[in-house]
Amino acid sequence: MRTHTSTDARGRQTGRRHPLASIALITIGLLSTGGAYALMTTTASAETSVATQQSVNEGQKIFAANCATCHGMTASGTKDGPSLYGVGAASVDFQMGTGRMPLAYQGPQGAQKPLQFTQEQIDDVAAYIASLAPGPAVPDEKYLAGDADVALGGQLFRTNCAMCHNVAGAGGALTEGKFAPSLKGVEARHIYEAMVTGPQNMPVFSDSNLSPQDKADIISFLKFQNQHASPGGVDLGGLGPVSEGLFIWIFGLGAIVGVTIWITARPN
Asked: Has 71 been labeled as part of a binding site?
């Protein structure tokens, strides 16, 4: 960059930069910063892509060894198991993450049991199934924190879920040997995944039925119930007024009848 010279009042020459020098330096700095950022972003994206492909490959191996007997080598289904195309990562994480899959036995409903795979293995299988066709993804953590509207969540739960799971989330019997499980102690992400995938007899609650925020409200309500004891004392399993009335009828009236018989049986 050329430097202009000038002479001061005493005849000395002074150096002065060109007016465009500052602009040129800023431009160079911006280009350097932008280039470095683009390089790092490209590298990070490439590393993420490789990691994802590795997860898919590992998931395919685990699937072939443990799931293909029922679902087929390409997950297209057999007479013993449905196709998994379009079920998404959420369904895999729910079924394997709760121990329901692989099935212990053929029955009216998959039983929950101890996990047979690590979370990393479950994530790999979920990545493989998700790569086959679009489907519900594992929910974002922001919907699982339990800090949403508890009151609205309770209202939504009673409207959409209580007819099967009971108003207290204690579960209930269904037809043909099936049942709605208790929701006490169930992980938030599994509750969300069940809503978007509809396992067993459960309907699918898409975002048009219940928005992600609505689902977060329901999860907050269930967490609140799990964390707060019954203010009225023993809740009799949280089964509601029917069980409480039955308790009073059997034990309360039974005790009164017993005392009455004891009094009348005493000799005068």
From this structure: yes
